[in-house]
Protein 1
Amino acid sequence: MSHYARANAIQEIATLPPVTASYDYKSEKVEAIYGINVFSIDKMEARLPKSVFKTLKAAINHGEKLPLEIADVVAASMKDWALERGATHYAHIFHPLTGATAEKHDSFFEPEGQAKTLASFAGKALVQGEPDGSSFPSGGIRATFEARGYTVWDVTSPAYIMEGVNGSTLCIPTAFVSWTGEALDKKTPLLRSMSAINKQAQRLLKLFGLDNPGYVAATCGPEQEYFLIDTRLYHQRPDLYTCGRSLFGAKPARGQEFEDQYFGSVPDRVLAFMMEIEREGFKLGIPLKTRHNEVAPAQFELAPIFETANVAADHQQLTMTLLKKIAPKYGFQCLLHEKPFAGVNGSGKHVNWSIGSAAAGNILEPGSEPHNNLRFQVFTAAVIRAVSLHQGLLRATVASAGNDHRLGANEAPPAIISVYLGTVLADVFEQLAKTGTAASSKKGATMQLGVATLPEFLKDAGDRNRTSPFAFTGNKFEFRAVGSSFSVSGPLTALNTIVADSIEYIADAIEAATKGQGAKDEKAFKAATAKLLKDILSEHGNIIFNGNGYSKEWHEEAEKKRGLKNLRTSVDAFGEIAAKSTVDVFKRQGVLTKRELESREEVAVHTYNLVVGTESKLALEIGRTQILPAATRYALELSDAVSSVKGLKNSKLEKIVELTNELDAALVALEGVREKFAGSDDVHAAAKIGRDKVLPAALAVRKAADALEELVADDQWPLPTYQELLFLR
Ligand code: ADP
Ligand code: MG
């Protein structure tokens, strides 16, 4: 690439005509397209025999067992619908341990005789598939000679049609397991964790006197942050298109200090993109609701209305696919990396989480008098206990090479896991920690603004807090440490499992104290819950923190005074995935076995190493073949000029020579540590070398290169700058 390519791209962007959405948004009604590509409950009801539909619905809504016999009937009707919608192929969709989405397509059409084909799709093809399991990481669960893996239909997540420029495919959400029945994916444990929390929450609700709680679902509404970068510039940055983040780039003159991006008006080209994302999402039944700019230039966010955790997780994966797929249509590339640009705000994925059922409503709704809401107090105490006991595990569920650039930096939650409750609840739970009961809740005051035409309004009792990794936000918890490129399944699985376990602990204690009577024995019940609340909150109250999570003092206090874990890097955290406390709780709740957990740790570490390996190799390549040559040529040009133009002094020459030498030496050093890293055959040892040697060596290369970027003639600089990448739209 050359300066000409950069200049051309800039010219093209500058002269772009106004961009509008690619469909007729004025006449199209949302109602007409919403869910059009989903084989929804309504469509099943209209198309399936009554008895089949009843069984299917019970499985979907109440987690009941699904008899195999009905699969053939469902498959036939699903196929008819898909063919009517123009699908030619079907695919089992699954989520391997890499966190990506995988699909294998098969045609509906089979030859019949010599010149005829027949569209066929048997129940077996719906229920079960057999992709080549060996192409996906299993963390040692399967060797390549025993490669069988099965995909199994997840009836609780609706099938849908994915339209593309090259035709349409019926997509069937599936779980992916090995021949031995071990989970090889993210969905299987998520579904198991949802059964666990349903079971334990129903038990506890019954003890509270709710005889028919109904299916208790974990719910999730994930907020997704992302960057949009112009395609023309993106393709001139091998680091962006290979690693998803920039490995080089000097800080732009203008950063995000002006704070005029957040909630500012969205540029037309971006808005057109957002509209199409929403439209495609709506067709797939994804309830996208919110769209806005984010803090950094070129950064945006979208969020759906919450759904059952499992469906939300599938929809989240689909949303990421749509973001990537639709961006190029508008001349953008979508970056989902946690930290595409150093020194600029990174991207997270806030995982909003709660539990509820039709009969119980949202269990984490405190109401206007949380001090009188015993059920809320007990369930929330279960969450607090769970997070306290398994803080290391939660940290590990958000560990990755990408998220390391974000967590702990002064813009994202710290790597220390704590719970934020806000003023009102913190006060209630402090009361509970003392006596087991609470007598009052703080109230918000009326806000008067001194302007007659501005209405009075009721102010919240507490302000918001953006620095907590795990915050209570009104009627749900928000796990904010999750990285923007993550599948939400890992964090959700962990949350469901540890909370189910704490609910079980509480239910056991109440059951014993009331001889199974629960709230029917009012006196014993009150005494039992008060004791539980007091004990849990005095033992685990340490995890509650309502202050500034970014501050130095908090890091000191958390570690030294409170004994909370501070697992700074992913390499520190990975061990928690299969630690004894994790293995025990996952076994008790029937979510994952020791072997399955160990395989997950293995894959996480391996993936970390892959990232470190790729990034450092590319840093070496770009440094050697693009930046060093540019610097050397420019040094030659300058020194030629200085020696041939009489009287010309150039104060930069010396500095450029110095930095060029520094870059050269840093490249040699990086190559050296990379050899050590690649030569290590123990993945854990390699990860440590990666973190302690390779990443710092790559950073040293970057430091010299970025300093050169500020000195070398712009028309000789080979890479689009941060300025161009972030501000041209
Ligand atoms: P914020 O508090 O971040 O301003 P919102 O009320 O807009 O947010 O909600 C943010 C996300 O939380 C949305 O995706 C929303 O659907 C989700 N959310 C709301 N209620 C629940 C719930 N009970 N369970 C899970 N997610 C929820
Ligand atoms: Mg939020």
Protein 2
Amino acid sequence: MDKARVAVLISGRGSNMAALIYAGRADDCPYEVVLVSGDKPDALGLSLAAAEGVRVARLDARALGADYWEKLNRQLAQAKVDLIALAGFMKIIPVSFVDKWAGRIVNIHPSLLPKYKGLHTQMKALDNGDRVSGATVHLVTSELDSGEILGQVEVAILPSDTAESLEDRVLIAEHQLYPRILARYASRPYDAAWIEQQVDALAARLPEVIRKSNHGAPGWGVGNEKAAKNFAIMADHFHGEESVGLLVRASGPDEMNGLIEAQPEIYFWPKYYGASGWLGIRLSRRDVDWDQVADWLERSWRSSAPPRLTKLMRIADQF
Ligand code: GRF
């Protein structure tokens, strides 16, 4: 598995950033921190990152004004970043940036979300007489502290706690939670079960689709239970292949050879199945274009569906 290339964005001391950098150095960690940046050019954590030999982009959001996000995007592109981890990054992110990086920005928040979004979370927990506080790693969406929760850790509240003492203890928990959850998220594109779920969600959008395995491999068929014909089959490390793939019906060997020659990182000729027009698409990659997979599924569905269904589809196409 390629290590995911992570950029950490900070505004302050960067203790979570440090935890992410150190964990990322382990050989078996599925990510590495390749860039640290933020909105304040003199943030303390930037000097630490530089001393640790991590590339640093010192950007001044105030001075750059409207150009800031474009400059940051340029830095992220230059460093070939796959994922962005926010760690005490205090700037509100515009929708255009969130959309561009949809599903690829994570954040750590010092509360058990959805409780206590925003600032002063430990004070709020104490004021409410809570028995536990904690931290959450979540995906970033355009709504503050509201994206999908990827992982949480609870931290007990002691009767003697002040907001500061509780913050200190939650921070210890944060430093352990963040690298662990980021590692899990970074390896998700290679997880066969997760890949199958994505394909299943796309296949289920097509008419009269049922699950239909093929020689023991998970697959999808179209038509009723008895007569259903496979239009997609999972190919997990298929006969010596290194990737988790999906088999779909192509038009024939000419098209298949053309695609495989042009994009061998995406397409492959599946053993045994290739001769009957099945094309392999590698899905255990970080840059899978799921819209393209959806198009392949639809094409494959059309060439497998009974005429009564394809006729309806053709009529729908005209509108
Ligand atoms: C942490 O408490 C984190 O949960 C919050 O901001 C703080 C950042 O601290 N988002 P540090 O800069 O990582 O030390």
Protein 3
Amino acid sequence: MNFIVSDRDNSVVRADYEVRFVLNDNLENSGDKEILTMMGFEKGSVCDLPNARRIYVSLKDTNPESLRIAVSKIVKALKGHNVKTVKMPRLSAPATAEGGTYGAIKEIEAALSAIAEGFVLSGYSFDKYKSNPTPCTIEEVYVSVSGCDRVTAEAALKRGRIIGEATNYVRDIVNEIPEVYNSIKMADDAEKLAEEYVNVTCRDYSKDYLKAQDMNAFLAVNQAGPYDPKLIHLTYTPRGESKGKICFVGKGLTYDSGGLSLKTGNGMYNMKSDKSGAAAAMGIIKAAAELELPYEIHSVLGVTENMIGSRAYKPDDVLRTRGGVTVEVNNTDAEGRLVLCDCLSWAQDEVQPDYIIDMATLTGACVVGLGNYTAGVIGNNYDLQVDFKLKAQTSGENYTLLEFNDHLRPLLDSKIADVRNSVPGGTGGAITAGLFLDKFIKEEYKDKWLHLDIAGPAFSGEPWGYNPAGGTGAGVRGCIYWLLNK
Ligand code: BES
Ligand code: ZN
Ligand code: ZN
């Protein structure tokens, strides 16, 4: 999709369709009040006038998230219309001295980025297995602005497009079926990122390396699967000076059957999405490279399946992890933390970052507690949690804090090993999973670490907002906006 800044009067811009916003549901200046009233135009609605080649959409306010939502309604309404070019209403920068800000980004720029994101995100569909797909046909969007120069406007639109496309890239990975998307395929895709961007490098490590590194928790999860485990390390290095080193660590379970603690049929369905954390970490590298962010960014992905079979690891096993901590397995379905604990240990030693953020579809408890649209932000550093939440959610993603407490900590005690991998009964499951990971965070990293449980928002059976059913690409936008606002 292309976004074109037009400084001509909107009436002379030629496009297949014109979009008009109805702010606060006020139809007075719409020019089509009569027909819109007749058609029952109401709050939150969209009204297509095909004869006039105009579409009206209700706009709650001019916040970026309201714009994304409004744009998604337009894209949905125009699907199947074979509309290729669309022109947007003129946007004006606020007439305040600073021009208004949204996070660290000027309000008008945030609005333009949000419009581009809205189009790119809601234009997405995963239809490679459909015989008769109906993809979005919009190719060009004309945007006119006042109070903002062309170069700035183009940069803001480009930023939104890049962030949207990186999110869609992640959705494609998450939606791909487990038969196709195994650890080898993820390593190939990571390698492709390094081929595509000059300042991205990729190294991937297989079973022998993991053995040499004593990553026995990761290896145990992999034991019954037919594919090699992969530890993938992507690095983006900025051309100019780096403002810091950030490491993302992603849970990449290309399938989670639960292992011998087998999931139910319903519980297993959609567990192709258990690679969402790793996929998001790949999307962040892609976005960072295209946005030329001024940070050195590392993504460390732990990729495997969690399967059953005679070689499967078992409840009752005791695993010696990379850092030396021993773990009693009491549930093979709490596998994500076993992969992550070795990857977190490796990343601290090998990358030595300023911040280390893991992303994982880690617990069903997080979905129960926070719902389908919100990720949990967990860690030891309250200020970092708050900072991340506030900056990340300017992306439109929802984040909320889940806090540790000392009463939950002993629930992970094991009678036979240093720690057990799950708490029977599961109360406080999202936090106890975070506490498990915390056992593998070294003292000097305690305040530099965040764990994002994206189990809720990463995948949805039903479409919501500008997300289609399936993978959403959760984590990419939040982390990128956090970096942009830092
Ligand atoms: N991948 C799942 C978590 C999950 C559940 C993600 C639902 C998305 C939707 C994870 O590996 C898991 O199975 N966790 C267990 C942990 C339990 C055994 C302590 C869970 O949440 O039930
Ligand atoms: Zn599991
Ligand atoms: Zn899992």
